[in-house]
Design a protein that fits this description.
Distance between the termini: 6 Å
CATH class of the largest domain: Alpha Beta
Radius of gyration: 23 Å
Bound molecules: pyridoxal-5'-phosphate
Number of domains: 2
Number of helices: 12
Strand content: 15-25%
CATH superfamily of the largest domain: Alanine racemase
CATH topology of the largest domain: TIM Barrel
Largest sheet: 8 strands, parallel
Shape: elongated
Structural class: alpha/beta
Helix content: 25-40%
CATH architecture of the largest domain: Alpha-Beta Barrel
Length: 363
């Protein structure tokens, strides 16, 4: 079934998001660690896939705990998830405790001031998480600060029910930082014996070490990203991006294309112009390095990507024709491959997915 499909013609590109694949990915991560609750990180509008559609699909599959980054995302998530446990990773902005309570959101408290402000405002009446920084030096109390708070009445007054930390290099299993962070986090956890603990993101879920604890926090892998770079991707692809071919032309050897003539035909070539550009969220840094698929054939992106247009060399794809389709993401072009071709990571490709597309959800 296709829901929320906007069939209006005249859009440049179509984004199809497979909700069944997101659910299957969540189930497979949950099955990977059956003793552990599997939550879902749905920050940044569910990694660009659309919180309003994704969150209820995960809830129906049995997911009960969700994480977002900002308070505003928490409010949006609450509208989609009336009963879920919702944690806000970026903590408690000054003076916002009332808003958190009004929407039954749980801040992930990351320093003594946040902890004190939340404790004073709620007096233990509403849960929150404690973020301990075990190596990122980004958000959270230091390990020493956290250990010093064990047994302090402020922990109960702040309603802390979850202690968490975040891995620096989980996708690099050989990095000694993983073992150091796991050991530090185990010490923190032992100091808060009555609390649940959470350490693992997508890649951490796949680590052999004791990173799983009580609650998993996968994001990227739910949306088809490979949690173990360098190994075959065990996740189902979620996102498909297809653009219309506007024109096909033949050019002579020596012809150039696009702004600043950054590509020159080494021989006679056939070029196709696609109705999609960097204003749609496709990264300009994939100029002269990315690919699209036409009739299953990989066709290089040639020249600089424009705001609304991309030029492909379709010499090897005899099916290329006006009104036809090119696949920018999908099939052999998974989000990790697309990110790599653009000199970035698949996360940035996903979270940059534009609002100009016709979006369809497949269930
Ligand atoms: C974004 C985030 C996650 C999810 O990470 P993925 O690599 O996308 O699985 C988990 N925990 C925290 C604290 C995060 O910021």
């Amino acid at each position: 079934m296709i829901i929320a499909a906007d069939a209006s013609p005249g859009h440049g590109a179509r984004l199809t998001i497979d909700l069944a694949a997101i659910v299957a990915n969540w189930r497979s991560l949950a099955a990977h660690a059956p003793q552990t609750e599997c939550g879902a990180v749905v920050k940044a509008d569910a990694y660009g896939c659309g919180l309003a559609a994704v969150a209820p699909a995960l809830w129906r599959a049995g997911c009960r705990t969700f994480f977002v980054a900002h308070l505003s995302e928490g409010i949006a998530a609450r509208a989609a998830l009336p009963e879920a446990a919702l944690y806000v990773l970026n903590g408690l902005p000054p003076g916002s405790a009332e808003t958190f309570c009004a929407h039954r959101l749980r801040p992930v408290l990351g320093d003594a001031q946040e902890l004190a402000e939340w404790a004073d405002a709620t007096q233990g009446a509403w849960p929150a998480a404690l973020h301990v920084d075990t190596g990122m030096n980004r958000l959270g109390l230091s390990v020493a600060e956290a250990l010093a708070l064990a047994g302090d009445p402020v922990i109960a007054r702040a309603g802390i029910d979850l202690v968490m930390s975040h891995l620096v290099s989980a996708e690099l299993p050989g990095d000694p930082l993983n073992a150091r962070q796991a050991a530090d986090f185990a010490r923190v956890r032992a100091a808060f014996p009555h609390m649940r603990a959470s350490l693992a993101n997508s890649a951490g879920t796949c680590l052999a070490s004791g990173a799983r604890h009580d609650l998993l926090r996968p994001g990227y892998s739910l949306f088809g990203g490979n949690p173990e770079p360098g190994k075959p991707n065990p996740m189902r692809p979620v996102v498909r991006l297809e653009a219309t071919i506007l024109q096909v032309r033949d050019v002579e050897a020596g012809a150039t294309c696009g702004y600043n003539a950054r590509w020159q035909a080494p021989a006679p070539r056939r070029l196709a112009t696609l109705s999609l550009g960097y204003a749609d969220g496709y990264p300009r840094s994939a100029s002269n390095s990315g690919h699209a698929l036409v009739g299953g054939m990989p066709c290089p992106i040639v020249g600089l990507i424009s705001m609304d247009l991309i030029i492909l060399d379709v010499t090897g794809a005899p099916q290329a024709r006006r009104g036809g389709k090119a696949t920018l993401i999908g099939d052999a072009l998974d989000i990790d491959t697309v990110g790599q071709a653009a000199g970035t990571i698949g996360y940035e490709i996903l979270t940059g997915l534009g609002s100009r597309y016709v979006r369809s959800y497949v269930e």
